[in-house]
Specification:
Blueprint: E1 2-10, E2 17-23, E3 37-38, E4 40-41, E5 50-58, E6 62-71, H1 73-85, E7 105-109, E8 115-118, E9 125-127, E10 131-132, E11 135-136, E12 139-140, E13 142-144
Length: 214
């Protein structure tokens, strides 16, 4: 016997983000964010915060689960397709390998104990009450995500490390632009002493994922 369980959660999200459900059953992803259930935004009047999904679970059973906010999977696959088509930025991701799909987690419910639901004596459909992201068991705990199968590069500038030689430039405001470059085609680091190439031109830039400026 099975029960269709409808999950509903209210959470603020930004463009390109979605809400996912993960739990202690294979149909809930077995706590693996890569295999989590992606929820769908549900518009109710002026409320843009509601996200819902339905999962078929066993009757007379108990499950633990959590919600987290991640990058939309469609945006991830679109980026993978773009990278795969780029001759200068070959991707090692395999569309046939679920574990290789990158997952960007922005925030996660971090209460020590997960949410719990019971399907005991339920028939047909069980619609859970609307949940507030991060809030249950009389407490609210939300933490930042972590890297799963990506890499992160942090560039920090402290204590005015850049000095302008000309006095007229010292009172002006400047911006610093960081661009990811692909040096793999050159076969070595950008400033290899053994290289005879005196060109100031760098390699082609790579497409990047998320850029956060603090």
């Amino acid at each position: 016997m099975s029960v269709e369980v409808k999950f509903i959660v209210s959470v603020d999200t930004s463009k390109g983000q979605c809400v996912c459900l993960v739990g202690d059953d294979v149909r809930l992803g077995s706590w693996d964010p890569v295999r989590a259930v992606e929820m769908q935004r549900e518009f109710t009047g002026q409320n843009w915060k509601l996200w819902t999904c339905s999962v078929i679970l066993d009757k007379n059973a108990t499950y633990g689960y959590r919600f987290f906010v991640s990058k939309q999977r469609q945006a991830i696959h679109k980026q993978m397709d773009t990278d795969a088509a780029s001759p200068t930025c070959p991707t090692t991701l395999s569309n046939n390998s679920e574990s290789s799909v990158p997952v960007t987690i922005y925030k996660w419910e971090t209460n020590i104990k997960p949410r719990r639901l019971s399907t005991e004596n339920c028939d047909g459909v069980l619609e859970l009450p609307e949940a507030s992201f991060g809030t249950y068991d009389d407490s609210c705990n939300v933490g930042k995500g972590w890297l799963i199968n990506q890499c992160e590069v942090q560039v920090r500038l402290h204590s005015n490390p850049i000095y302008m030689w000309k006095a007229r430039h010292r009172e002006q405001t400047f911006s610093i632009k960081c661009i990811a470059m692909d040096y793999s085609s050159q076969g070595g680091p950008p400033f290899d002493d053994a290289s005879d190439d005196d060109s100031r031109d760098g390699p082609d830039p790579c497409s990047v994922d998320d850029v956060l400026v603090c």
